[in-house]
Amino acid sequence: MKIALDAYGGDFGLAPNIEGALDAAGRLGCHVALVGDEAALKSELKRRGQEGDPSFSVVNAPGGVIGMEQEPAIACREKPDSSIMVCADMVARGDADAMVSMGNSGATAVAALFKLGRLPGVSRPAIALFLPTKTGQVMLLDAGAITDAKPHHLLQYAHMASIYLQKARGVESPSVGILSVGEEENKGNLLVKETFPLLKASGLNFRGCVEGRDIPAGTVDIIVCDGFVGNICLKLAEGMAKTIFQIIKEAAARNPVYLLGGLLLKGALKDIKAKTDPDATGGAPLLGVDGVAIIGHGKSSARGVANALSAAMKFHQSGVNDAIKQAMARIESEKPAEAGASK
Amino acid sequence: MKIALDAYGGDFGLAPNIEGALDAAGRLGCHVALVGDEAALKSELKRRGQEGDPSFSVVNAPGGVIGMEQEPAIACREKPDSSIMVCADMVARGDADAMVSMGNSGATAVAALFKLGRLPGVSRPAIALFLPTKTGQVMLLDAGAITDAKPHHLLQYAHMASIYLQKARGVESPSVGILSVGEEENKGNLLVKETFPLLKASGLNFRGCVEGRDIPAGTVDIIVCDGFVGNICLKLAEGMAKTIFQIIKEAAARNPVYLLGGLLLKGALKDIKAKTDPDATGGAPLLGVDGVAIIGHGKSSARGVANALSAAMKFHQSGVNDAIKQAMARIESEKPAEAGASK
């Protein structure tokens, strides 16, 4: 299979992308199309002795790179030949089976949605983010800041995430929770109260309401929420971990006893860091678009890029999107007619 | 001044409450009315040799204690003589100047709102929680899970919090942010987009939108949000800190090198723990009710109770509620007529 990789996307530019691609292509047997500045990419492949390697191709993106801080919709419109847009276009035209970018998350989602469209029956795609927990990972969606979701959207998120974990990750009967402020159904906001009965009747392994503390505790496999709440949680969780490590680091710099303690604890702290490391999750699938798109973390190293490429392969090969289409058709047929209005 | 203290409220029952009260009464010169089982409290005061101490009185609450997991509104209705309800009643009748409870937060808010009512002009009271940051504390409100707030409510939260920090904590021009998913005004949900211009025109030290990461980073003094989001953030932040410490503790139990490292780092970890310690914040003021109520953390020790009593004193003595009344009257007079409908 062929994956279009946004070769300069992310905070660290080309290096982690090309190194991750070299690793993944060799190990997983996929073909990676490096999308970006053609001349620069070709000379880089040459420099690394991979010039004639059939695992790689180079695709020019004359529009350059969309910056990490650019407004996604505007950037995609103004730079139709940017690397992210070219990647999405390749998947749309069938020139690639999947796209992967460590660049501007919002722009990746916008480009994929614009070029690939939604799967039939899907009202809204969602960024399904893996967050580290005490025991493993939890899939939180929508983490993509598509705000003001409706109950119908959250129901679709739960179905899509369950299918993804089953098919691409082999989780047998993924448990689903809805993010709220208490375990009781009546404690949530309007969105929770209206979504709860839909999830209860969904046939999914629905465990009811979960709270903020359930995200790090890892009590369920999937947590659905509005993109506004999801994005705030994701940034709060990242910020908390970062702040705690900064405090330990600064204490160590100040005091040799702490420094020694920190060195001895390094292995344990590394375990935590490894868990909270963006490299470990393999990127966030964009669920609900008619194609395969993986949105990686801007701070990914080569390992993170390789993991994202691997996730794209599993996403493509495990038939996730066909299963989502079938599920959407089934939900649609079971849905009372007027609910269609909230699409 | 006289403070009604819910003597058995919180996860640890009487001990931290009575010890905190003994400490605060002696140090701060306030009178504490211990509200609970009269006979038990009297014998406890006797046992501690404080029987005739004029700093204490005992007030019977025949309805017992509202449990931490009870549904607030139902519990307050069914137990009108519970300690929390008696405390609120004392403030309402002028028998006490303030109430403090480490018990069921929701029930404390419900009891205070029910017995004291709102300050004139306030649409909705808010629980204003102090969360630890890298550099100090940030006031997050509403943290009380009063969900589905309107723009007008968030504007009032910002005014009330600014007044509280100025009057009771001496912060000169408290900076205010609104919690969102990006720094740009247009990135938020409907609530953010509609609240932003109100805050911009408020005359407050408004710094615009802040993100989840700004909570631990401490970039502003006050963050306003809907109670649904605030409560999720608070529980996520608590859960993150707890999980990280659990992982370090478990690593230390497994491996003697980590144990030694942990021991050497203990001081630094203690610094972090002290910051995230519920004892350090002094409890959350309930802003917008016509009286003084401080909601403490269920896991407070004697120090936490003493700090909450001290916060109640400052809240009462600094004229916060008078200033809120004046601010509300001013906002009301400046508001276009039709906005009153959203109350």
Low-confidence runs of at least 5 consecutive residues of chain A: 339-343
Following the backbone from N to C, one meets helices and strands of chain A in this order, namely EHEHEHHEHEEEHEHEHEHHHEEHH
CATH 4th-level superfamily of the largest domain in chain A = Isopropylmalate Dehydrogenase
Please give the alpha-carbon distance between the first and last residues of chain A: 34 Å
| CATH fold category name of the largest domain in chain A | Isopropylmalate Dehydrogenase
Tally of strands of chain A: 12
Offer a concise description of the structure.
The first copy, chain A, has 343 residues and is of the alpha/beta class. Chain A is 50% helix and 15% strand.
Describe this structure in words.
With 343 residues, chain A is of the alpha/beta class. Chain A has 2 domains: 1-122 and 288-321, Isopropylmalate Dehydrogenase; 123-280, Isopropylmalate Dehydrogenase (3-Layer(aba) Sandwich). The first copy, chain A, has 13 helices and 12 strands. The first copy, chain A, has a 7-stranded mixed sheet with strand order 3-2-1-4-12-11-5, with helices on both faces. In chain A, helix 1 (14-28) crosses helix 12 (302-317), helix 6 (151-169) runs antiparallel to helix 13 (320-334) and helix 9 (227-254) packs antiparallel against helix 10. Chain A is globular, with a radius of gyration of 21 Å. The relative contact order of chain A is 0.16. The model of chain A is unreliable at 339-343 (pLDDT under 50). Chains A and B meet through helix 8, helix 9 and helix 10 of A and helix 8, helix 9, helix 10 and helix 11 of B.
